[in-house]
Amino acid sequence: MNIDQSKIPQATAKRLPLYYRFLKNLHSSGKQRVSSAELSDAVKVDSATIRRDFSYFGALGKKGYGYNVNYLLSFFRKTLDQDEITKVGLIGVGNLGTAFLHYNFTKNNNTVISIAFDVDENKIGTEIGGVVVYHLDELEQHLPEDVTVAILTVPAHVAQSITDRLIAKGIKGILNFTPARLNVPDEIRIHHIDLAVELQSLVYFLKHYPNE
Ligand SMILES: NC(=O)c1ccc[n+]([C@@H]2O[C@H](COP(=O)([O-])OP(=O)(O)OC[C@H]3O[C@@H](n4cnc5c(N)ncnc54)[C@H](O)[C@@H]3O)[C@@H](O)[C@H]2O)c1
User: Fold this and answer.
1) Which residues line the annotated binding site for NAD(+)?
2) Both 10 and 50 in a single domain?
3) Are residues 41 and 133 in the same domain?
4) 3-state DSSP call for residue 192?
5) Domain containing 185: what range?
């Protein structure tokens, strides 16, 4: 089935990796089908939302049967490009950046940080989690063309100028951990991650929806 991915709402698209991870576990434990209630329980998304999400993928689920795990898995693999490895560049090998290099997403999916940059001479030339750290001055020279995504874990005041250079070099998506609001052309995608906001939202939900 061909699915026009631009028709999948963003909120649904954001839940895909969550579903994918759980289905992969189910698959490796030998399960062939799963109900929306089971999924709901595991990924903590209500089952009406799951049914709506899955209807976008043409997975309608049958009453009393549930969803076919293999079908869903192959769909997610294609949609999330899990058959391809997405290479990621990391800029800023400090507290956060170092943690990401050690973690390097190996257990989750096929994204991998393949190169890192910093300006600290003590870090240049070292290898962290198997990834070599280059000087930012060498960004244009060393950032490979197949790296299309970057993670920004630098101080906020240098974030915009680095972003401009990354875009000039062909980066299409940036996961921004800095507090800086970045100006980018429309075709560049920025996801901004702020733990303080996430925590506040958690506290808000605990306070206002304590029983859900
Ligand atoms: N989003 C969040 O939830 C969250 C949480 C903590 C920190 N942060 C932010 O993430 C960023 C990194 O935090 P941290 O604790 O890892 O900081 P850090 O100071 O430990 O690391 C910053 C790194 O960037 C390097 N750097 C400085 N200027 C650079 C440049 N021009 N080019 C390349 N590298 C450069 C430094 O040498 C250092 O290694 C900060 O902007 C911080 O505010 C965000």
Assistant:
1) 92-97
2) yes
3) no
4) strand
5) 86-196
